[in-house]
Amino acid sequence: MMQAWRERLDCRFTEVEAVFEECMQEASQILSETGLHSYLDSARTLSKLGRGAEPVLTFLQSWPQTATTVGEDALVAVMTSVNAINKSPNGRAIAPLLQSLPAVSRRLITAAMLQQYLDLGLHLLARTSGSIHGIHKTYASPCLIAFYEHAPQVLHLLSIDGMRTWAEYGIRHYHDHPDQQQQYFSLQSADSRAVLQRARHGSLLVDHLRKLDLYLLALWQDPLPLVPYATVADTGQSEATEQPPYYDDEGMRLPDLYGTRQGVSGLDRYRIAMAHMAAHRRWSRAIYADNFSPAQRLAIECFEDARVDTLTMRLYPGLRSAMVALHPAPKVDACNPKTHSCLRHRLAMLSHALLCGEASPSTPASSPVQHAYTDAMLISFVERFHANMARGESGTEEMAALAIAYLAKTRCQSDQLPNTWFTDTVVDYRDDNRLLWKFHELSDDEETFDSHRTTTTTEQLQRLPPRHYPEWDYSSQSYRPDWVSVFESLHPSGNSAFIDQLLAKHSTLIKRLKRMLDLLKPHARVRLRHQEDGSELDLDLAVRALIDLQANGQPESRITESHRTDGRSIAVTLLLDLSESLNDKAAGSQQSVLELSQEAVSLLAWTVEQLGDPLAIAGFHSNTRHDVRYLHLKGFGEHWGYEVKSRLAAMQASYSTRMGAAMRHAAHTLATQKADIRLLLVLTDGRPSDVDVHDEQLLTRDARQAVTELTAQGITPYCVSLDAQADGYVREIFGNNFSVVDHIATLPEKLPRLFMRLTR
């Protein structure tokens, strides 16, 4: 029979001959007689393609496993794809395609879903292979091999529909950039990972950060920040590896995405993981690890994890069902001690029994929830554990003693085997217990996670990450996720006397503005007492503080008061375009556009201060999408005074105008203001542009999309343009919400008047 199979294969590659017999033994047990003939015929076809031994060798080894999942009939679709690839310049991609089939089929399960995967590969081939004069494909796709090599990894995270979305993004945005295309489909680029994140199904930590922060603070009184880490696998791996949660002095580290598991939603999985780490922080105490072996430390961690989970369930009984559901329940005979070390398996069974052995509040203590294990030694230690817990004698040291006793009673010779059994032994909501241990001596054998570095405030500020925003691509009608990096900082200070001189220059205008302001000012004013830095002295509180001081008591420091208007609910952010073009001289004036803008902004800030409306002022400029600078000049909580004037006096203009990202960032703060009207006033002198964008419509359309987003948030964007030719593109971005100042020299007078008209 083996000889007949060899003759049907008709292949003379020595590499194939070396493994042929083993492959056929496996295939004959899995495939039907018809399937076996098709298997050999397909292998013969691959051997005649002129691509060497690798395709046929890969097929012989991979197809039987694939057929067990998707069925033998799927071979027709696979060979159709192989033939299509062979007729193109992409013949080297045949072996990676065949190599991917077993892992891909485990994710796609059916022949129909596998067909979608094969079709997607051919679609990618057609869209990314080069051609001469559009007649036929001449140049190989730079990304097809990378696509097949990383397909199992992508499908471990996405559905086939999500994979198609991810692939389409790479095709559209990197069609003319072979190197970037290859990096994208190899999961090496930030864009690839960002799109991959958004196509995944589950709960993203960033979407629930505030809710979970409040949960941690309210239920555990723990202010530790939450820090996500990527769960996308390293590029050299075929599947995603799940790093367990952990915590350190800088925060609780959690996966960036949790999907539903065992009926527990991703959000609830975050809550369980946070509760477990918070319980460790409250009830666990680090012990010295130097005198314990690795096996003993593993057992101690098992008992300590069960202890803090038990205390957590007592404090918050509602978590119990989710904890039990997420804890694996290993089968007794799953691990073979003749081939594997079963220590982890035994400890996982014990941990499950310890968790189930704790009675729920609705269950009598005499009849706790039962587990399925009957081993007498396991049951005795479960009883000892809960007896300690009931007497209140439990602590980390007591758990260590109990773990050592358990290990001494159950140790097996097979525990020393190099192959460890991992199936159903990982409790994924539990952290890695790195802070449960401390060491007398540091050595190469011990992993220590404590960092003794001290970071100065300046270093911390320098390391603050940028805020990432999407950018709208009008050609594909989709967002480029996390495309723009916005760095925000406080604007440097200058000489505040310069602003005072500008205001003195416009003293006549200020008098006219005062008369107009008297008509706009609301007359109802609310007195705000007990202020640290109010505008007036509160005499009653000042006298009381003086008496306390004379009596050697502790005087009250909050002895000033201020007033706010009642009846006018408006919050305004003034966003200044600080691009290089502001350094040009204004038409008909000896001053630059920047200097006139300083005068106008100073008058506007003074005007808003008189009205009592919350006002923030910020400037922006950009040097490619990787470096958009957002400079704070005045915050909503700051009064018009020395510090604000100092920053305005130091205003400088440089670089370009990436307006959409700046507006999105300004809205991030403006949207939090409690006001009936939120106005974003944009002062600019030109069309949105940047040095890394050659299509002038791209940033214009993105700015328009940003206006749409802000409007949906209840923010009214309004543009004041200093470009006399701006009507066309400004109307495209802002609709009818714009004004064009034809004579820039009149800006200092027009801007405050415009504001009063908009907020009347």
Characterise this structure.
- The chain is of the alpha/beta class.
- It folds into 4 domains: 2-199, no CATH class; 203-438, no CATH class; 497-520 and 567-758, von Willebrand factor, type A domain (Rossmann fold, 3-Layer(aba) Sandwich); 528-562, no CATH class.
- Helices cover 49% and strands 14% of the residues.
- The protein has an 8-stranded mixed beta sheet, sandwiched between helices. The protein has a 3-stranded mixed beta sheet with strand order 4-6-5, with helices on one face. Strands 12-14-13 form a 3-stranded antiparallel beta sheet.
- Helix 21 runs parallel beside helix 23.
- The relative contact order is 0.05.
- The model is unreliable at 233-241, 359-368 and 443-464 (pLDDT under 50).
Features:
Rossmann fold, 8-stranded mixed beta sheet, single chain, 760 residues, 3-stranded mixed beta sheet, 49% helix, 28 helices, alpha/beta, 4 domains, flat
The helix content, as a percent range, equals 40-55%
> What is the multimeric organization of the chains shown?
single chain
Globular, elongated, flat, extended or rod-shaped: what is the shape?
A: flat
How many beta-strand elements? 20
How many structurally independent domains?
Answer: 4
Low-confidence stretches: 233-241, 359-368, 443-464
Query: Class by helix and strand content?
Result: alpha/beta
* Biggest sheet layout: 8 strands, mixed
| Spatial strand arrangement across the major sheet | 10-11-17-16-15-18-19-20
Number of helical segments with 4 or more residues:
28
How far from one another are the termini?
95 Å
Mean pLDDT: 84
| Range of strand content | 5-15%
Query: What value does the Rg take, in angstroms?
Result: 34 Å
